[in-house]
Amino acid sequence: MSEFRKINRLLQTESSVSPGADDEDIAIFASYLSKVENLVVVVSDMARNTSRIYCGKFADSLGLKDYTTENSIWEKAILDLMPEEERDEKYRAELRFFHYLRHLPREGRPNYYLASRLRFTTGKGIMTDVLHRMHYVYADNGESIRYAICTYGPLTAGFSGRSVVVSSLTGVSEELTSTTEILSSREIQILRLIDSGKKTAEIAGMLSVSPHTVNRHRQNIIGKLQAKNSVEACSLAKALQLM
């Protein structure tokens, strides 16, 4: 399963709420943001599986014209400006960000956003660096993602990272890499053994622990990665470059 299919499935699964009454507020916010900061702002509605695009002046340099809607949560015309490997890196960063947030208390998740440096090829064939930021807006239950708000603008001076998670309260940032703690070292060790085809009893013997402990770690891994089973957990861990 590709990185795109993984993050797409996770986002679709997360959105279990019905369309709300805050659409107009979000639209006004996105429209003003695009005008004030000259950004391209994409509001992806998880409940409706649609996106609205608000093009500030930066859209002109990307060659985007009359781009206002998508019948998907993914902004295809923008993604098509990136080479395939760049899109894969974007999806991988969003996967890591998604799982990073899952480890935080519900009330703290809205206080973080993802910032990434992406390479675009403009309509004139010119390569340019773009700063992509992504915020999740949660439903009242604090669990389901209601909207994803993405902004695209020129890369700001001093941004040296590739993909970082930023606290909007403190400004502290953390690089999102394969070593960002999603699974413990013991869980990665067990997952490697599972991926190699080892059975629970074999793993227990190799690590000198009980089968119950191995199964407990297995369930923790599946839960942390929001996977359906061990096979999918192994696939997700590889996509996240955890092993």
How would you explain this protein's 3D organization?
With 243 residues, the chain is of the alpha+beta class. It has two domains: 3-175, PAS domain (Beta-Lactamase, 2-Layer Sandwich), CATH 3.30.450; 185-239, Arc Repressor Mutant, subunit A, CATH 1.10.10.10. It is built from nine helices and eight strands. It has helices at 3-14, 23-37, 58-62, 76-79, 84-102, 185-195, 200-207, 211-224, 230-239, and strands at residues 40-45, 50-55, 69-70, 112-121, 127-138, 145-154, 163-167, 173-175. Helix 1 runs parallel beside helix 5.
What is the compact description of this entry?
The chain has helices at 3-14, 23-37, 58-62, 76-79, 84-102, 185-195, 200-207, 211-224, 230-239; strands spanning 40-45, 50-55, 69-70, 112-121, 127-138, 145-154, 163-167, 173-175. By secondary structure, the protein is of the alpha+beta class.
The CATH homologous superfamily name of the largest domain equals PAS domain
Q: What portion of residues is helical?
A: 40-55%
- Strand count: 8
Structural class: alpha+beta
Order of helices and strands: HHEEHEHHEEEEEHHHH
**Rg (CA only):** 20 Å
The oligomerization state is: single chain
The tally of domains stands at: 2
Strand order of the largest sheet: 3-2-1-6-5-4-7-8
Q: Please tell me what the overall shape is.
A: elongated
Mean pLDDT: 86
Low confidence ranges:
none
In the CATH hierarchy, the third-tier topology of the largest domain is known as Beta-Lactamase
User: What would CATH call the class of the largest domain?
Assistant: Alpha Beta
What is the end-to-end distance?
A: 16 Å
**How much of the sequence is in beta strands?**
15-25%
Q: Can you tell me the CATH architecture of the largest domain?
A: 2-Layer Sandwich
Number of helices: 9
Mind describing the biggest β-sheet?
8 strands, antiparallel
